[in-house]
Queue: 4 jobs
Job 1
Amino acid sequence: MSQQKSRFLPTFLLLFVAVIWGSTFAIMKNSLNRINVDSFLAWRFILAALLMAIVRPKSIRHITPNFLMKGVVLGLLLGGGYIFQTFGLTLTTVAKTGFVTGLYAIFVPLIAAGFFKEVVTKLQWLAVTLAVIGMAILSLKGLSIGLGEFLVLVCALLFACHIIGLSYWSPGRDAYALTMIQMATVGVLSLISTARTGFQTPHDHGVWIAIIYCAIFASAFAFIIQTWAQSFMSATGVGIVLTMEYIFAAIFGILLVHERLTWRTVVGGLCVMTGLYVVMLVNSREKIES
C-alpha cells in the first residue's frame, strides 16, 4: 500500500498545485483592475521569496555559486514566461491566452525529444494530444495568429523550458532553496518590468489579500511542490498534469464568479482529465518497471 501511495504521490501533489493555480484566476480577477499586472507580479514573487527566507533562513547556506546560477536561469525562464504572457494578454483575448499558454504541454516533449534525446512514449503523446484538444475546446472560438498570440507562444516555450530545466536540475538538490532563488529572480524581473507601466502599491485590503494568497500558496508553496515532484516525474508527465489548471480555473469561475457551465467546459474537461489518467498510467508503469 505504501508503494502504491509513493507511486502516485508526486502526481497527486502536482494536481493540488493545479487546483491552487486554477483558483488564482477567479481570485485575481477583480484585483488586476486596481493594480497593474507587473506590480502585482513583483509584489507576489518578492513577498514569496522574503517569506521563504524568513521561514527557513538556514536554506541560504545550501546555495553555492553553481546552485545560484541554475536557480537564476530557471527563474528567468519562469519570469520571462509571465512577462511575455502579460504583454500578449493585452493584445489578445483571455481565452486564446489560456489555450496558447497551455501549449507548453506539447512543447515539453518536442523539446525534450529534439534537444535532449529523451524517449517520449506513444501513451505520453496520446496524453499530450488529449490535453491540447481539451484546452482547444475549452478556450477557442476561432484562432487568428497576431502579435498577441505570438508573444503568448513565446511564453509557452519559456514555460516548457522551465519545466524541462527543473527535471534536469531539481533531482538531488534542496527544493526549498531552489524555489526561493526562482521566486526572487521572478520578483526582480517583474520589478524591472514595471518601468514601462509604473510601480504601484496596493491601496486596499482586497488587493493585499490576493497578493498574499498568491505569494504564499500559488508561488512559494506551489513551486516547492513542483520542484520536488519533478525529481520523480518526467517533464512530459508534469506538463500534462499542470494543464488541469485550466479545468480548475473553469470550476472556480463557476463557483466564485458565477460563470455558466457549458458543453465546451464539460467536453474539454473530460479530454484533459483523460490525458491526466494516461499520465498516471504511464507513471505507474515506469515505477513498476523500475
Job 2
Amino acid sequence: MERRKNQSVELCRIIGALIILGHHSYLLGRRELFVSGWIFVEFFFMITGFYTAKHFEKTAHGDLSISASTAMGYVYQKVRRLVPFAWAGILLGLLANLIKNGLSPRDLLALPYNMLFLAGSTLPIDLPNYDSPLWFVTMIILFLPPVIILMTKLPRAYRHLLCWLIPALFIIYNVIVIGRVAVWESCPSRLMRGAADLMLGTGIFYLTRLFCHARPRTIALHATKALGIVLFGVLSWLAICSPTGMLDHSVGFLCLAFLATLLLLANDQNYLNNDALYRVSMHLGTLSMPLFCLHHPVERLVQLAVPSLCYNTKLLLATAASLALSEGLMALWSRRQKH
C-alpha cells in the first residue's frame, strides 16, 4: 500500500481536534482542563499553510499563469470538502438557538449570513453566530488566495522575507493592541491572527525543504521525528493541563507550536510498516475536520438537553456524540461522492 501522507501528522490532527473540543467545553460548565487548547487552532492554520505551499511548490521560481482565479479555485476545492460538515454544524447551532430562545426573524436572517461564513469575519453586523469555531474557514477564504498570489508571483521575496516579516508585524500588532496573540473578538486583531498563522505555515514548508535539500543522515531524520513527537506531547500537555490559558505567554506558546509543527513536518517518513495502522491513522486525520466543524453546537445541545449532569459526564456525552455524528456524516458524504 502506497503511503503518501505523514502518519504522525494525521494522528496529531485528531488529537488537536479533540483538544479544541475540550477547550470549548466551558459550554458544559466550569472547565479546569483544556484552558490553553486554543493553540491547536494555530496548529491547524499552520498545517493548512504548509500544504498550500507544498501544492504550489512547482511555482517556486514564479509562474505567471497563476492568477487570482487559480488561487480562488484552489481555495474553493479546499473549502468545498468542509462545507457539508460546516453547514451541518451551522444548522445544529441554529437548532440550539431555537431550543433556547425560540424562533425569531433575526435567527432566519442570520442563517445565510452563517452559511456564507460571514459570521467569522469582522463585519460589524449584530447577528447570531451559530458555530463560532468556523471563523477558521472564514480566514482561509479571506487570506489563502492573497497568500498564494504573493507566494507564486514574488517567490524569492516571499520565501526569504515576506512569509516571516508580515506574520511578525501582525503578531506584534496583536500584542500591542490586545496584549496577546490569541484573539477571539471580531476585530482586526482576529484577521491578523489568521493571516499570520497561515503564512507561518508556508514558512514551515520552506524550512523543511531546506532540511530535505541538505540530505540529512538517517540518524538526523530519526531524531527530527522523535523530537517533533516529544514537542507535540509537551504542547498537548500544556494545552490540556495549564490552568492559565497561557495568554500571558502566548507568543512563546505560539513559538512552541511552530517548532513542534516544523519538526513533525520535516520528516515525512512513516516508520510503522503496517497497512491497517496506516488506514486508521488516515481515517482519524480525515475525521478531525468534521469533528472541528460539529463539536461546538453539539456541546450546546448537550448542555440544553441535560444541564443538571456533572461536567465530566456531559463532556463524555458531547465527545461521543460529536465523534458519532462526524463519522456518520463523513460516511454519507463519501458515499455521495462515489455516486
Job 3
Amino acid sequence: MAQRVAHWFAFEASHFYRLPHLSAEQNLRLFGKAARPHGHNYRVLVTFYALPETPPAYWEQLADAIRQHIDAQLDHRCLNQEHPAFRSQLPTTENLAVYLWHNLRAHLNAPVEQVSVYESETLFSTYAGEQQVGADNIPRPVVALTRVYTFSAAHRLYNPQLSEEQNRALYGKCANPYGHGHDYRLEITVKGVPDPITGMVFSLSDLDAVVETEVLRHLDHKFLNEEVPPFDRIVPTSENIVAFVVERLKPHLQGKARLAAVRLWETPRSCFEWQE
C-alpha cells in the first residue's frame, strides 16, 4: 500500500513583482509594495509517494539531495535576476511551487507528489501536478493558493431545544451561559490556473477584500449567538462557522479561481475543514 513521506526545507531569497511593459506607477498600483525588492524566509514542504518497503535511509539521502538542490538554486538569491526560470515569469508562490514540482521530479528523479511553498505564515501555494487544458489545447498547471486570516469571537455552545442538564452533558463547560472566546485562524484556499502575466491564481488584494466584506466584518469581535445570524438560531460550533464561511464566499469564487477549501482552527489543537 502506498504511503506518504513529507520533508520541510527552507531558503532565504528576495524578489519583486514588476512587469516590464508597465510603468513604475502602474506596477505599484497592481502589486502594491510587493513591486519593490523585498525578501522572505521561505519554507517548502515536499510530499513524496512512498512504498512501505522503502528503507528510511533512502528518504534521508533524498532529503539531503533536495536540500542541496534547493540551496544551490534559490538560497540567498534575488530570484528575478539570478534564476533563469524567473526572468520570464514572476516568482510568485504559485510559480515557485510549479517550478519546484517539475524540477525535483526531473533532475533528482524524486517521487514528488506535491510541493507547497510558504512565503509567510499567512500565504502559501501548493501544486500536485494537476493540469487544465485551455481552448488553445495547451495544458496549464492548476495551483491551490491559501491565504490565512484571524478573527476573535465569543460563542456559547447551547441548543435551546435541550435542557440545561442536557446541554451541560453534551457541551460541558462550553455551555457556560456567559460564553467563552477564541482567537480563530481561518485558512481560505482558492484553486485555479495562475494568470500567465501576473503568475497569480487570484489577486491577493481582491481576495482580502472579499473575505473582509463577507466574513471577517461579520465575525470579528462579536458574540456570535447574539450578534450574528444564523447563530441566534443554530449552535455556533466551528463546523457551523465553516459552513457559514463557505456559503458566503462560494458565490464570489466561482470563476477562473474557485473556492477549494476552508479550514478553521478554533485552538492550536483542533481544526475543522470543508473541501470542494
Job 4
Amino acid sequence: MVEYVEHTLQPIYDEHSELLILGTMPSPKSREAQFYYAHPRNRFWRLLSELFEEPLPVDNSQRRDLLLRHHIALWDVLHSCMIERADDASIREPVPNDIAGLLAKTSIRSVATTGSKAYALYQKYCRRQVGLDAIALPSTSPANQRFYRYSDLKREYAVILSLVHVG
C-alpha cells in the first residue's frame, strides 16, 4: 500500500563533517528505530565499521559516534514522498530536504548517495542548489543483495576513505 511518509529523523552531522552520505527516505524499520539503516540485514554499518577498522556499532549512539569520528554526515535526499514500504521504485510526489542549508553549517565538500534512486533524486532536486556532484554508491539494502556481493559492495564503498580526513 502506498502511503505518505514524512522524514522524521534529524541529519547526523557536526561542523567538522566533510562527506555527506544520502539515502532516499528512511525505511519502515528505520522509522520504527528512529535511526538510519536500522534493518538488521542492511549492510551499511558493517561496511563503515570494516572500512574504518572499528568494531561494529551496536546502538544508535555508537553509530552516530562512528560517523562523526570519521567526519561523515548522514541524511536523506527526501523530506517527504508517497512510497510503498521501503520500495524506492514506488516513490511519487518527492519533496527534497534542504541539503544546501545543511552544507552551510559544515565543512562538507563531497556527497555520496546510497543507491541509484537517491542519486537520481539528488541530481534532479538538489545538485544545482548544492553545487557538488554526487558519487553514486550501491544500495546497502537487503533487497540489493542479489546484485552486490558483500565483497563487491565493500570495494565500491572504499572510495569514502579518500573523501574524509583520516587521523
